[in-house]
Amino acid sequence: MFVDQASVYVKAGDGGNGLVAYRREKYVPLGGPAGGDGGDGADIIFEVDEGLNTLMDFRYNRHFKAKRGENGMSKSQHGKNAAPLIISVPPGTTVIDEDTEEVIADLTSQGQQAVIVKGGRGGRGNTRFVTPRNPAPDVAENGEPGKERNIRVELKLIADVGLVGFPSVGKSTLLSVVSAAKPKIADYHFTTLAPNLGVIDTSDHRSFVMADLPGLIEGASEGVGLGHQFLRHVERTRVIVHVIDMASMEARDPYDDFQKINKELEEFDPMLLKRPQIIAANKMDMPGAEENLVAFKEKLTEDIPVYEISALTREGLRDILFAIADLLDAIPKIAPEIEDTDEEVVYRYQKEDAPFDITRDPDGAFVIYGAKVEKLFKMTNFSSDGAIRRFSRQLRGMGIDDELRKRGAKDGDTVRLLEYEFEFVE
Ligand SMILES: Nc1nc2c(ncn2[C@@H]2O[C@H](COP(=O)(O)OP(=O)(O)OP(=O)(O)O)[C@@H](O)[C@H]2O)c(=O)[nH]1
Ligand SMILES: [Mg+2]
């Protein structure tokens, strides 16, 4: 199995901050609270785009940060929610949490979406903290931080293009110079025993997957050489690139090679001849290749484009890759084979954040940490007394005061949370 893989960091947008504001109207001497809520931060969503077939885009961009929500405004106006950041992925993409190895999403069908990280909720404005006892609160919340995650994106590769041809014509060499694949290359037959896959990126940023395949010889369709095993792979590809040794280094006639290979393909499955083909006239750097090519083209009656290349000197590669990409764009997709089909499970909600934990620093200070308490802290706007009081109430509500006391905290002891210090007050 061949897997394309990328490690990516995603951070959803933070919620916008809530606002503390009061009405100021001409004839209302004591205007009530009028601070609006912050908007929600942007989610990061992955969406299947059938037009993609590799994870090439993740090679260029490994960090994704979504926009934050707008802050709350006066006159009780809600800040705008940030629009989700949508990232296109090819069908067959699996998204895994790198830290827990949990599968977050299996994306298979066109348009299917999965929320990879949720944006933070907008903080509430002071309008929302009105109570009969406190009709004009000076409390507003900061936005909730957006979730962040390290993820691994994986894609089982299916070759779009198969390289076929006699042994030693240069199939593996070609794959090695147009992709990062490192197939074994040697001047003896059947160097390649199992297909190698490479991801190809054309200079105009289109990408596709190409396989070099074990060499084919006469009788392959009946099982000679690596026969059937090899031909099964060809059946799954959408374009066949027929590699021919135009230098005739083993004294075979190039056109004869071409016909023999096609005959084997046809005998294995007549449909294979209907598959679009491109001829790669390889080894054009060698003496005699030019003459052979002229003779080859004279004999060629089939309507198949011929591209002159040298995998060794890397000549002509750009043109043939463009031709392959154009052809792939022009023909319909074959639905990728997906082993465990119909699995529509998309996103499992995350477990509750651990509320808090307490340790002690060497100097005796109590240190509070944990996702939930840290989130509360970040959502508190410490510029108002009301918000500070509310934060202490929340800590008490979570049982942090009791826990501190249990561990021996006394009036005046230092308590740390993130990079801040407080005094423990009874
Ligand atoms: N002169 C020249 N030699 C080449 C070129 N491409 C490949 N070769 C040589 O041809 C020999 C066979 O190359 P491979 O890439 O292993 O051939 P293959 O088609 O993958 O062969 P199998 O895996 O055995 O089917 C090697 O010695 C290569 O260096 C080329 O463009 N010019
Ligand atoms: Mg090979």
UniProtKB/TrEMBL annotation:
Pfam families: DUF1967, GTP1_OBG, MMR_HSR1. Residues 1-158 form the Obg domain. PROSITE patterns: G_OBG, GTP1_OBG, OBG, OCT. Mg(2+) binds at S172, T192. Residues 119-145 are annotated as: Disordered. Its main location: cytoplasm. It is found in: Cytoplasm. Its cofactor is Mg(2+). It is an enzyme of class 3 (hydrolase). Belongs to the TRAFAC class OBG-HflX-like GTPase superfamily. OBG GTPase family. An essential GTPase which binds GTP, GDP and possibly (p)ppGpp with moderate affinity, with high nucleotide exchange rates and a fairly low GTP hydrolysis rate. Plays a role in control of the cell cycle, stress response, ribosome biogenesis and in those bacteria that undergo differentiation, in morphogenesis control. This is GTPase Obg.
